[in-house]
Amino acid sequence: MEASLRQVDEAEAERPLAFDRESGMLTGAGVLDRMAVLALQAGSILTRRYGHRGYRLGCKAVANLVAERDVVVRLNGDADFAFPFCDGYWSRTLNRNYDYEEEIEAFLTSASDVRYSFVDCGANFGYWSVLASSRPFGGQATLAIEASRENAKRLARNARLNGGRFRWLNAAVGEASGGFARITGARHEAFGTLALAENEPEAVPIVSLDGLAADGLIDAALPVVIKLDVEGVEVEALAGAAGLLQRDCVVICEEHGLDRSHGITRHLIGELSLRVFVFDPELCRFIRLDGVGRLDRIKRHAWVGYNVFATSSTLWEERLLAATWRGR
């Protein structure tokens, strides 16, 4: 019986595997694929309240049952996002009731009628680049930057999958353009970068955001939204965006749950004198932080990343305070 199911699934594997989050429709799936998707969905539902603790192990077990292939998730009517089937991080998007970084989606939804430049630093496979450049989010001019060569290959695929509507770079973001960096880490969603004294085979160039604006890759004549998820080099990346931060710019920085000192928020408020906002899940809206105390309550899980939004712009402050989220 198992052998016959595998034969059916091998035949189905020649068809693209796709899942529509809006309708719940799964296409290109054999029997084992459908069982795997149900298991991945159930695992997300069961572990969601715990920040998906342990979900990765379940995905690894399910992956042993199916052919190695990609799944394309339709995020909205104009946004397709591909990743490896049973991926331990992105498979949670197969759960239609799961909200991935809902604070970012709430903000970008609130800003969908504004024309702005979206810069996705540490883009991974390009989830937010795919969405920000889609019609429901205003079809924004988008630049995705990813330091990992393997991640950048998937980022490029997602750009092609969506008609090449956003630009992408395989580079590391730093304080100044020039020099090289090497990628460190074992998981695609948690890679770090290490600056190098000289070039080496696996190195990537370092770029600064102000340098990219000077080169015309970021249209600084428009308001700018910077998503900064660069695993430990946030301070350097912010220093390299000093010019952009003086304009109509908002930067979205990840605060890791493990950092109980809330270092990046302290830097944004204390060193850069920016107004910092965070999404309060109990209030379902953004609030301005007058210090880091509220983050003690909001950052519930040590293994989860939380986003803070920093700006000196009245435009972006208004959009943040107008944004709401009720979940799916």
Describe the structure.
The chain has helices spanning 2-12, 31-47, 55-63, 102-110, 127-132, 149-161, 209-214, 234-239, 242-245, 263-271, 295-298, 314-322, and strands spanning 17-20, 26-27, 70-76, 79-84, 117-121, 141-146, 167-170, 172-173, 180-184, 192-196, 204-207, 224-228, 249-256, 275-280, 285-289, 305-311. By secondary structure, the chain is of the alpha/beta class. An eight-stranded mixed β-sheet has the order 7-6-5-12-13-16-14-15, sandwiched between helices. A four-stranded mixed β-sheet has the order 2-1-3-4. A four-stranded mixed β-sheet has the order 8-11-9-10. A hairpin with a 5-residue loop joins β1 and β2. The chain is globular. The model has no long low-confidence stretch (mean pLDDT 91).
Tags for this entry?
alpha/beta, 8-stranded mixed beta sheet, 328 residues, 31% helix, 4-stranded mixed beta sheet
What's the quick description here?
With 328 residues, the chain is an alpha/beta fold.
